Amino acid sequence: MNKSVYRRPDKPLKIAVRQRREAKVEYSQVLPTPLMVDSLTECHVTPPNIASLMAEYLCCDGMEVLEPQGGTGSLVHAALVNGAESVVCVERHASLYNYIVERFLQSVQSINGCFLEFSEQCQRDRKRYSRILTNPPFKAVKKHIAASLDLLDSNGIMIALVPIAFSHPLASDLELLPETTFVHAKVRTKIVIFEK
């Protein structure tokens, strides 16, 4: 047996430090305030991967997109990333509205108000949208989908995240979402498409 295998070769045990550089780490002085979402808002935040998938289905490249229930802006962000030219976002609750305004600054037209009232006003003004991306409140899903469809232009597309039991003559199912998508709401959901 060769004993030299068990010996350390002649290497220095210490190395002199020639120059020590300081690592420059920049920290933000302002910590972001956490957004507290009250259960009364019925804001079920769309997970980023689901929002991205919905925006891909929408084909919003170079289009104006309406997001009827802004929430925390997940769908707004996904639409912008997928090439939407502009986004109109409606949010009723002041804290969520302020969050969206701060998050997107001038890149999104944010409207603080009830979407159902906004829909009525758009119908009076004959304003229509060719692309709508929505995650409506689960309890009032039928009213919100009907109001959204009233604003959908001919040849328009709407992608919606709805409870699995939802059905509509103009809706086609695209994907059933995992049970874990909205754990706190205890609602199974799916992505549907409306085409006029």
Strand composition percent: 15-25%
Poorly predicted tracts of residues? none
Structural class: alpha/beta
What is the ordering of alpha helices and beta strands? HEHEHEHEHEEE
Shape label: elongated
The main sheet comes to: 7 strands, mixed
The radius of gyration computed from the alpha-carbon positions, rounded to a whole number of angstroms, is 25 Å
**How far is the first residue's CA from the last residue's CA?**
84 Å
Number of strands: 7
Average pLDDT: 85
Query: Roughly how much helix do the residues carry, as a percent range?
Result: 25-40%
| Annotation field: number of helices | 5
Spatial arrangement of strands, main beta sheet: 3-2-1-4-5-7-6
